[in-house]
Design a protein that fits this description.
alpha/beta; Arc Repressor Mutant, subunit A; D-Maltodextrin-Binding Protein, domain 2; 3 domains; 6-stranded mixed β-sheet
Length: 309
């Protein structure tokens, strides 16, 4: 198996046809077809099939595509690590951010990267935390901002901030508490809109509830922050989240947030990297910059509800 075969295969999948991939790669289409056939013969599986919509991946092809992407990225990182200077890092760095963090961190980090490291291309991926964990394990991400429930065995983790989860609902909602704060037991008795069990704040809420001898009531599972926001505005329930991802709605009065006490629900936000895949100089520089930007945001009060961990 050769690296060029991996590049050819990824290009065919990305462009959806042999002819378009051949043009982009500057390779004759018969040669591209031959390399694909040799790759399939070596793997003993069909990776692609023709359809009315172009070349589509088989189930085996979808699996191989993920591995091929990770391998090609690690090769590019290795090449970049050898040639780049420690005083002037350059190259591409991929950083994963959960939906609930990107609103606070993404734009300040992009601005700081452009100013400090103009030769680094920062690629931001916004996903649910479960997906980011898998991408970081496979090497498709250099770094990811995750939470304190990640598997410590796979990652090296640097604490960034702590965030309190708040009880948030539409202003004037039937779910709104009467007092200035509410106990966790009261919050759990409401209809809560939360991600599925393997994602985001849900494992944290369940862990704290279990530790307090409490059980969750009615749950509406929504993994998309945009859809969760729409459900809140439609008054389908309340949620337990940090204020940052819904700050615009809270500031304009469309939503209201209440502190949760007895016990409070707090999450640790961490910057994670693989223990098995070395960071390039550029990735290490971005990791340091993430910590600096986070400290600045907290010092200026620009990351509401967060304090340095």
């Amino acid at each position: 198996m050769e690296l060029r075969q991996l590049r050819y295969f990824v290009a065919i999948v990305d462009h959806g046809s042999l002819s378009r991939a051949a043009l982009v790669l500057h390779v004759a289409q018969p040669a591209l077809t031959q390399q694909l056939r040799q790759l399939e013969e070596e793997l003993g599986a069909q990776l692609l099939h023709r359809s009315a919509h172009g070349m589509l991946s088989t189930d085996a092809g979808k699996i191989f595509y993920e591995h091929a992407q990770a391998i090609l990225k690690q090769v590019a990182d290795a090449r970049s690590a050898v040639v780049q200077s420690t005083t002037r890092p350059s190259g591409s760095v991929s950083l994963g951010l959960p939906h609930s963090i990107s609103g606070a961190l993404a734009l300040p980090l992009l601005t700081a990267t452009r100013t400090r490291y103009p030769e680094i291309t920062l690629q931001l991926t916004e996903e649910i935390s479960g997906s980011l964990t898998e991408q970081l394990k496979s090497g498709r991400l250099n770094l990811a901002v995750l939470f304190d429930d990640v598997s410590a065995g796979h990652f090296s983790a640097t604490p960034l901030v702590e965030e309190n989860l708040m009880f948030i609902c539409r202003s004037g909602s039937s779910f709104a508490p009467a007092a200035a704060s509410l106990r966790l037991q009261e919050a759990l008795a409401s209809t809560l809109i939360l991600p599925a069990r393997q994602h985001g704040v849900r494992p944290l809420v369940e862990r704290v509830a279990q530790g307090a001898g409490l059980a969750l009531g009615t749950i509406l599972e929504i993994n998309s922050l945009a859809i969760l926001r729409s459900a809140l505005l439609a008054d389908l329930g309340a949620t337990l989240l940090p204020v940052a991802p819904l700050l615009a709605d809270i500031e304009r009065g469309a939503m209201t947030a209440w502190p949760v006490v007895d016990p409070a629900v707090t999450r640790q936000v961490t910057l994670c990297a693989s223990r098995n895949i070395p960071l390039t100089n550029a990735a290490a520089a971005i990791g340091k910059l993430v910590r600096e930007v986070t400290e600045d945001l907290c010092a200026r009060g620009a990351w509401p509800g967060a304090r340095l961990g």
